[in-house]
Amino acid sequence: MLRWLLELDLVDGPVPWTIWILAGAGAIALLIRPLRRRWIVRAGIGIVVGALLGWLLVVWADATRAFELPMPPNVKWWTTGGFALLGLSIVSLWRSRWWQKVIGMITIITAVLSMFLGINQAFGLDRSLSELLGVNTLASASGFASPLTTPAPTTPLYRTWHAPAGMHKSGETRVLSGNVRIPSTAGFAPRDASIYLPPAALVKDPPALPVMVLMMGLPGSPNPRAVAGVLNGFAAKHHGLAPIVIVADQLGTQTQNPGCVDSKTYGGVETYFNTDIPNWIRTHLRVLPDPKHWTIAGYSNGGACAFMYGARHPDIWGNIANTSGEPWAGFADPASVLKPVYGGDQAAFDANKPEAILRDNAGAYTDHWAVFSAGGLDKKYGPANRTAADLAESAGFHTTFHLIPNATHSGPGLYGGLSEAFSVLYPRWGLAAG
Length: 434
Prior knowledge:
By secondary structure, this protein is α/β, with parallel strands linked by helices. It folds into 2 domains: about 1-125, no CATH class; about 135-430, Rossmann fold, CATH 3.40.50.1820. It has 15 helices and 10 strands. A hairpin with a 3-residue loop joins β5 and β6. α4 (about 75-90) runs antiparallel to α5 (about 100-125) and α8 (about 225-235) packs across α15 (about 410-430). It starts with a helix and ends in a 5-residue tail after the last helix.
């Protein structure tokens, strides 16, 4: 029962529409009264004051960057409308009959829920309560194909692969827990990673495939829904071919920021991603071994880590996919990283910014690719990613940069950025013609 509740779709389907219809019905029921001047004035004041408060709240949040990102346009309308309905519901509790008070109380609840669902839909990042709460409800993974023991093929896979009859139409997502949990050897305590296995990985005797390690944002959790949704579309167009993707946790909890590096405070985060996870991949998954087939990727906070790891460990990661990423760890709130991670050591903090790492590894990026993207309406992370892409290109990466039309630092930016990255990398991986 609990799992069913946690997995309810909060974006599409009956849940949001049921709440919105109930809220609308409540508003109509509250307005159906004899048109007396006192009621008209009271209702008008409730609606106007509520709407004004909601509108000002979003303006304040945008002006102060209270949530560290610009509000998607629909947030303003959901908040304004929701507060207007709250204002109407509250004033309806005075000088009304008992049943009108009951309707008013119910409408207050549905107004709050309507705002929550509408704003969540506008951001487009969390589709269920499990994602909002950071609870992983996936089944445990098991039964991986044995790692590649013969020399890797040199012919691009799209030329030799023939999808067998009965192959799954979509990939599968699982949580890496229990016997297949990725161990952390340097004191970091990550939440369980998740894995996406494309249709081609689910057949008997599957081919060796490219591999991607993806990190989500802050706050956030290692949930594979976004990347699975995008890759299922690519796999459908390419006979089931797609990379295996591990969505791993660089935070430890929903809200802490370890800054992507090993530290006394949070343990070996960088060791986990650049030693523990690669070792686990090599011993558990049938993947292509060349770095050109290995990609480190991230969204927002995860993008900062992806840029850092790809720059510092070019022997492991042949590609970087940075979607609306911070240009360096702690960009949004330097104090949240500088003191707990570096003990206030500004020089150590600066030494772990990609610009310094790229300079320290000059000449190491031959045949390394980097794909950067950001929402076209993202005034903070868009310019930052343009600068990051320029740094990567100057250091020797084969670099592309994409602005996602009409997207901010939210769901459309994430989904659009992943799609752009896969469009660039599919030929690189040999999954599609160039």
